[in-house]
Each structure stands twice: as C-alpha cells, then as structure tokens.
Amino acid sequence: MGIKESIKLLDKGTKHYKLIVVNQNSLDCKKECKSLDFANIEKVNMDEALLEILVDKTKDEKAFESWDFICEYLKSIESDLLVLYNVDYLFSPDLGNQDIIKNFKYFSRTRKVILFVKGKILGNDLIHGEEGDGDYKRMDISEVLVEGW
How many angstroms separate the CA atoms of 125 and 119, rounded? Predict the structure, then answer.
C-alpha cells in the first residue's frame, strides 16, 4: 500500500490506533518517509532522544519508569505526525523489556505515529531480536497498519 496511503487511512479514522509499523530495513519505506510532505510532521531519532531523556535517571527509574519519561517527551513535541526511527534502545532490558508496539498503540490513540522497527513478521507478530537475546521481543501487530515486509 505505501506509507502515504496508510497515513490517509489514519486520517479517515478507520483505525482506533493511529500507528503504522514500518520495516526499518525496507529501502522503499525509508525513501518514502524522507519524501513525506505532510504539514506538521516531526522526525525523531529515538536512540538520541533516549540518551537525552534518560541521562540523569537511575537504573531503577530506567527499568520501571522509562515509558513515562518517553511519553512526556513525545507529548511535548507539537506535531500531528511523529516519525520515530532508530528505536533499538527501546528494546533494551535496561528499559524494562517493554512491549513497544503495545505502548505505542495506546499512545497513538491521540497522535499519529510511524514507528520504524527492525524485525521479522510471523503471522500477526513482529519479532525483534533473536530468541535468547536480552532484547528479544515478540509483539502483536494485528491491530495496527504494517508496511515494508
């Protein structure tokens, strides 16, 4: 379908969650994202943002409260559409091994989000990392739009 068409679907309000999960390794998706010309769009390098957000946080704060800090940061960005890339650190065990798709599904009820993720799809699940690794996560993507796989 393509990212632009998926955004138009979100604008029509046919989905409860306004989240598009995009294959970070898809060259076509990267090109299309670079060319997005929608008004009020903000592209965020999450690895860099997380370093800034969590710089003075304790290990326990990172493990148990990181999502609250992330939400606070993202809510402070005045934009109708957030494009989030370089999200690998979000999967770190240091940040509580969260279900990033689930978290962003709920966040995207009020904001449109494009989330670039490395991984593979198996049925209705997105798998990040390799089984046995600390950043391994299997997440349900059945309720969101998916591009690039």
Answer: 10
Which tens digit of pLDDT belongs to each residue from 109-145? 989 999 999 999 999 999 999 988 888 999 999 999 9
What's the rounded Cα separation, in Å, for the pair 36 and 137?
29
The bridge status of strand 125-128 relative to strand 120-122 is antiparallel
Amino acid at position 103, single letter? N
Each residue's pLDDT tens digit, 82-108: 999 999 999 999 998 899 999 999 999
Q: Are 108 and 17 in contact (CB under 8 A)?
A: yes
Integer Cα distance of 101 and 27 in angstroms: 22
β-partners of residue 139 are 126
Separation CA 1–CA 44 (nearest Å): 24
Q: What is the pLDDT of residue 39?
A: 67
Any idea where the domains of the chain sit in the sequence?
3-147
Burial of 130 per CB tally in 10 Å (0-12, 13-18, 19+): exposed
pLDDT tens for 67-79 read 999 999 999 999 9
Give the whole-angstrom CA distance, residue 80 versus residue 111: 6
pLDDT at 37: 65
